[in-house]
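Bumping my old thread because nobody answered last time. Still need a sequence for this structure:
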């Protein structure tokens, strides 16, 4: 029989001799080898009793000296797998939601349920606090195990991991319970065995916060229910092996180093700002483990509280701690954990119901403007030129979305991030500090192959003006063996060490800038970059075999006019679809590039039908249908021209295949705006955001038209609803419409008292009277003032948006140097606009506050005015 060498729980009230530990390991090994044996007892010659039990597949061994009463395990273990939606409710008086710290109830102790699990009662949470997520789930009690159980780490060791009672869970099984809302719960210290000293564990936690408060730092928060106890695991490992060293080969695999143990629940930091370059498993990002050989909490804290100790590091508002103590070995973990449930706003769901959704951080609209080439265009006096670098000196994406009024890591969502999420954890970190475009999974025999598209700043040409910032990407992959839960690695996937079984492989470089000329004709000189930026984000087929997006076709010089085939493109050149097709070639992933032509008939930009001119539908984004066919989101417009001056444009949106040419070819087609006020419409658009292509889910921002259209055409007057100085008015001047499946499902209007949320229909370049200076509105992102979110799971969905100015994206610029406020102008808003000219990168708190938002869903939502974000787990 083999000797058990995996992680276990060992209970004894007295020191255990090494030869008895060895016998206990052999006893457990015999149980594992034979199988179907849940418990076994062995009595030694001196009367010592070894009792071994498998609880959820994890060995629990109790060694009782002669004369002692046998001590059974006090509790079992569980693994938390959240399923459903993650939302961030917000209110008019708490525009960034509510979160920790929990406001204590003086009638209960600090570890009582009243103070660790206050539920949805808003009065028990701090306005603007972090960890403000709400989990919407149909699983009973949010999917938690019984309260008496102790959670085991999600990324467990495969040979000795927990087993699931009742068989393996099916990820795609539709819950049968009622959809309910859940907030986080804190988990008091619970004994795994009767010998565990809970008082010491509480003493470690309280002693930690005493020294943190004395040092002027935010107190740490008690560990979260559902997540594995990392400090308790370390304490148990040290006690079993009789050592407090950080690294040892005698520790079980995937637990042998501090950074192995500290990442058993994924990486704690969602949004990274740091000088890391390799991004290997050793870069644990503001996460620390403390160890000591003592049974005294005070002695352990004193040993750790040395000058410049991480014990009193500044973690902002999101420090999370766990404490463990076992047979005189103490451990403490402290982390900057900026989320309760880790997930991104962009997601992929497999057609294989056993596979979980994957998610990552993406821009807050599927269609893109200048997010990937942060620049603007205008007249000859304001040519196309980059405003910002796509990534900064440490490789972070330039665009972030605020969740509070400060730019700290826990208060923003990145436009692009470094993590891939599954089941509420960050299971993978992009190699070499890259940014994630997206991810999918291809089954590969006894393993699942995780495929990720990664942007690396170091791969991009130095001449970004003519090549763009995103010319190249790399295709990386990692195999995850199939076990009870699919896509559940034993460790976080990161780094490119080929000797690491959980490191990334591949890294195939793909050129996204060398787009061939379209079939309609046209040639480009050799080695010319013909695609400078993305027109939509990557989307993946449900079988994981391919990915598709839109890329602009055109060189830097082509952007000067920005008038493509008869129809102006305010977001750049007209996009063309490009696919990446993946094939598993043994120990590699073959990637081929398929360039598609324009949609419709680009040689016929318009056609006349009686007095109506129909303009060709222009693709805004692309995704896959149920049979891997390409489905496009389109906008189109018409104009009544014959014999009518100043006739308004009428705007449509819908979805269709690549053959769609006019708005009449679209499915789920709807008229979403008209340039002038008519009997049917009083809305003129500025921005169209695609929330989801397949569901024809669009968010449209706009304003009241200036003029009224006559029934026979032309202009018959000024619209009384129009706001002349609408960027600076307390009136409801900023409108947002939601469309789903070809129907208007919501319309709401917002005031703009400080001019920050600006959505003009055209670039304002009228010169100031008596001056050559002018003001130009710069909007590099579709989501600059409105962010759109669509999530679906188990046939249910949430469709939401937030009205909120994005830092570094809303810009009203003047000439250089700045002009003085003009005494009078041709535009009444300019004097007020001057106040926001040349602002610093971050706006004021008042300017950052969300104006509001709306959320519609097929499931009950928590009490809210709006949802800031919505995600899927």
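Sorry it took so long. Here it is:
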């Amino acid at each position: 029989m083999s000797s058990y060498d995996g992680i276990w729980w060992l209970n004894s009230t007295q020191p255990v001799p090494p030869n008895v530990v060895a016998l206990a390991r052999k006893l457990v090994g015999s149980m594992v080898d034979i199988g179907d044996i849940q418990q076994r007892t062995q009595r030694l010659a001196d009367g010592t009793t070894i009792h071994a039990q498998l609880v959820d597949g994890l060995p629990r061994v109790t060694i009782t000296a002669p004369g002692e009463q046998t001590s059974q395990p006090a509790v079992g273990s569980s693994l938390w797998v959240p399923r459903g939606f993650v939302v961030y409710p917000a209110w008019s008086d708490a525009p960034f939601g509510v979160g920790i710290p929990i406001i204590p109830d003086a009638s209960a102790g600090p570890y009582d349920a009243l103070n660790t699990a206050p539920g949805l009662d808003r009065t028990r949470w701090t306005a603007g606090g972090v960890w403000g997520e709400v989990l919407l789930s149909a699983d009973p009690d949010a999917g938690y195990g019984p309260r008496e159980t102790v959670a085991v780490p999600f990324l467990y060791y495969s040979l000795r991991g927990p087993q699931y009672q009742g068989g393996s869970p099916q990820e795609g099984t539709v819950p049968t319970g009622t959809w309910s809302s859940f907030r986080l719960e804190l988990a008091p210290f619970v004994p795994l065995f009767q010998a565990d000293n809970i008082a010491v564990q509480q003493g470690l936690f309280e002693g930690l916060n005493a020294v943190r408060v004395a040092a002027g730092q935010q107190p740490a928060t008690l560990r979260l229910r559902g997540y594995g106890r990392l400090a308790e695991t370390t304490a148990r490992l040290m006690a079993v092996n009789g050592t407090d060293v950080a690294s040892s080969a005698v520790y079980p695999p995937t637990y042998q180093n501090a950074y192995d143990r500290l990442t058993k629940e994924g990486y704690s930091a969602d949004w990274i700002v740091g000088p890391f370059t390799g991004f290997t498993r050793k870069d644990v990002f503001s996460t620390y483990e403390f160890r000591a050989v003592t049974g005294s909490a005070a002695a352990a804290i004193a040993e750790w509280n040395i000058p410049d100790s991480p014990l009193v590091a500044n973690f902002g508002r999101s420090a999370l701690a766990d404490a463990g103590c076992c047979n005189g070995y103490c451990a403490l973990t402290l982390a900057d954990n900026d989320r309760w449930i880790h997930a991104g706003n962009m997601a992929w769901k497999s057609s294989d119901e056993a596979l979980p959704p994957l998610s990552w951080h993406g821009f807050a609209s599927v269609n893109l403007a200048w997010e990937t080439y942060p620049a603007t265009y205008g007249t000859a006096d304001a040519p196309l030129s980059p405003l910002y670098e796509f990534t900064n000196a440490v490789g972070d994406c330039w665009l972030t979305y605020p969740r509070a009024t400060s730019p700290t890591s826990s208060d923003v969502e990145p436009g692009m991030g470094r993590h891939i999420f599954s089941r509420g954890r960050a299971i993978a970190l992009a190699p070499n500090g890259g940014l994630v475009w997206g991810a999918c999974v291809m089954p590969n025999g006894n393993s699942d192959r995780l495929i990720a598209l990664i942007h690396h700043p170091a791969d991009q040409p130095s001449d970004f003006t003519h090549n763009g910032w995103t010319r190249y990407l790399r295709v990386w992959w990692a195999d995850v063996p199939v076990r009870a839960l699919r896509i559940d690695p034993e460790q976080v996937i990161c780094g490119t060490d080929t000797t690491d079984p959980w490191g990334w492989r591949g890294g195939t470089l793909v050129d996204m800038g060398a787009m061939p000329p379209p079939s309609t004709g046209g040639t480009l000189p050799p080695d010319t970059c013909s695609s400078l930026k993305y027109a939509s984000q990557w989307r993946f087929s449900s079988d994981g075999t391919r990915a598709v997006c839109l890329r602009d076709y055109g060189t830097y010089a082509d952007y000067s006019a920005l008038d493509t085939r008869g129809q102006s493109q305010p977001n750049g050149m007209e996009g063309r679809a490009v696919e990446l097709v993946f094939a598993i070639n043994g120990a590699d992933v073959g990637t081929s590039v398929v360039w598609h032509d324009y949609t419709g008939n680009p040689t016929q930009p318009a056609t006349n039908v009686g007095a109506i001119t129909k303009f060709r539908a222009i693709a805004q984004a692309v995704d896959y249908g149920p049979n891997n066919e390409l489905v496009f989101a389109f906008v189109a417009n018409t104009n009544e021209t014959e014999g009518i001056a100043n006739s308004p444009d009428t705007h449509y949106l819908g979805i269709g295949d690549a053959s769609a040419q006019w708005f009449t070819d679209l499915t789920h087609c709807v008229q979403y705006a008209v340039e002038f006020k008519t009997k049917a419409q009083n809305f003129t658009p500025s921005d169209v955001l695609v929330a989801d292509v397949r569901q024809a889910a669009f968010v449209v921002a706009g304003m009241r038209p200036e003029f009224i259209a006559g029934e026979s055409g032309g202009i018959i007057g000024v619209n009384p609803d129009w706001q002349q100085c609408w960027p600076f008015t307390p009136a409801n001047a900023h409108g947002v419409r939601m469309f789903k499946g070809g129907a208007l499902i919501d319309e709401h209007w917002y005031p703009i008292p400080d001019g920050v949320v600006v959505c003009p229909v055209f670039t304002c370049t009228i010169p100031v009277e008596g001056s050559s200076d002018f003001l130009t509105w710069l909007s590099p992102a579709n989501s600059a003032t409105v962010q759109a979110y669509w999530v679906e799971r188990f046939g249910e969905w949430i469709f939401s948006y937030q009205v909120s100015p994005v830092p570094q994206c809303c810009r009203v610029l003047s000439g250089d140097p700045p002009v003085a406020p003009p005494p009078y102008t041709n535009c009444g808003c300019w004097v007020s606009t001057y106040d926001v000219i040349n602002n610093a990168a971050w706006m004021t708190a008042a300017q950052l506050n969300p104006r509001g938002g709306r959320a519609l869903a097929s499931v009950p939502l928590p009490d809210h005015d709006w949802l800031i974000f919505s995600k899927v787990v």
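The longest helix spans residues 18-34. Let me know if any region looks off to you.
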